[in-house]
Amino acid sequence: MCFNIGIVVCGPNEALVISGMFQGGKPTFINGGRAIVCPCIQTVQRIPLNTMTLEVHSPRVYTSQGVPISVVGTAQVKINGSSEEMLGYAAEQFGGKPVDQILNICLETMEGHQRAIMGNMSVEEIYRDRKTFSKKVFEVASVDLHNMGIAVISYTLKDVRDEVGYLASLGQARTAQVKRDALIGEAEAKKESTIAEALAEEQRMESKLVNDTEIARSKRDFELKKAIYDTEVNTAKAEAEMAYSLQAAKVQAKIKEEEMQVKVVERMQNIAIQEQEIMRREKELDSKVRKPAEAEKYRLEKIAEAERQKVVLEAEAEAEATALRGEAEAYAIEVKAKAEAEQMAKKADAWKEYKEAALVDMMLKVLPKVAAEVAGPLSETNKITMVATGDGPIGASRVTNEVLDIMGSLPDTVKKMTGVDITARMSQA
To answer: Distance (Å, rounded) from C-alpha 357 to C-alpha 429?
Structure first.
């Protein structure tokens, strides 16, 4: 009977499409469940939801370079039962068709898109970048199959072949490239090995040069230290010799000082004898004999000390010896000047005390010296030529008279200089 009500059940791998009366103008989709169907007024169709594997063959397809190749791809597709929209598309496209027909439709669709993508890519791109090729086929096929209610789960490029040997040539080129890279790598390795050996040799030579430099530096330091030690030894020897010379100079200076002391003693003894002989003039002559003797003694002592210092300083350094000698001589001159000044002061005191008597005494002592000085040139004369007018004495007496005239003029000169009339004083005496 047409109105017999039946129950329809479907497994989880298929979907029921119920259409007809009581469906509100559109079919009802049931996945893995059951439904009550009235066979006379409703229709039930089963749509498989199993995953279907497609092996997509594209033989002798010309790529963008015009090279014919054959490609085999594997795709996983299925009717999307989770979306009523896609179930509607699938029911519209495949309703009432067996699975073989559905597979054939999907296969032809995938093959078409696969051939299209192959024509837009080169052999090298397809062969070397399979992932990009698979992605493009997957994206293009998914759009068309989506409109059929089928979802592309995956697509993988399985095999690429050619009948003209293009891929083999690519392999040979790659093999040649690999061999070339291997040869280059071997050459690079040999180069690096040679460079390493050269660097090692350079480091060895550098180490050798550094070692030689250190040896030379050590020798130099040894020579410098030896020179310093030799200098110290020679300096010590020189200092010892200088000390010996200095001590000898001191001894010589002491001997000279003793000799000077002896001379001073002798001089003092002579002064004592003179004092005993001329007691009357002791005070008068004290400033003339004793004081000068003491000044002479002091001068001689200073001279002796200067000589001693001179010898010592000559042994130490010539420049310093010269300076000290000048200083000693200056000091001796100063002492002598002081002594002479003191003697002159004593003489001045004596002149003040004895006045004319002292002057007379001095003149009596000086006159013989003056006569000797006047007659001195005559004694050295080898020949005298006398020219006379006939008036007065001639010959040797003329020379004598000349000397006597000079001596006779001395009293007048003294009188003019000192105011003392020597002639009158001598007459009184």
So the answer is: 10
- Write the CA distances from 426 to 186, 356, 407, integer angstroms: 142, 11, 15
DSSP label at residue 180 = H
Tokens 């040649």 appear where?
A: 176
**Count of alpha carbons within 13 angstroms of residue 171, beta-carbon side:** 6
Enter the pTM of the model.
0.38
Beta-bridged to residue 150, according to DSSP, are 79
Is 47 within 8 Å of 95 (Cβ atoms)? Answer: yes
Dump pLDDT digits (tens) for 336-377: 878 777 877 776 666 555 556 666 666 666 767 766 676 666
* CA 337 vs CA 290, 299, 304, 323: distances in Å: 17, 10, 17, 21
CA atoms within 13 A on the CB side of 235: 6
Which 3-state string (H, E, C) describes 116-131?
A: HHHHCCCHHHHHHCHH
Alpha-carbon span 58 to 49, nearest angstrom: 27
> How many angstroms separate the CA atoms of 119 and 111, rounded?
12
As a whole number of angstroms, the distance between CA 335 and CA 330 comes to 9
Give yes or no for a contact between 152 and 73, defined as CB atoms under 8 angstroms apart. no
Nearest C-alpha neighbor of 106 from the set 80, 82, 135, 142: 142
Distance from CA of residue 366 to its chain's centroid? 88
Distance in angstroms (rounded) separating the CA atoms of residues 14 and 94: 13
Distance linking the first and last C-alpha atoms of the chain: 218
> Rounded CA gap, 230 and 232, in Å?
5
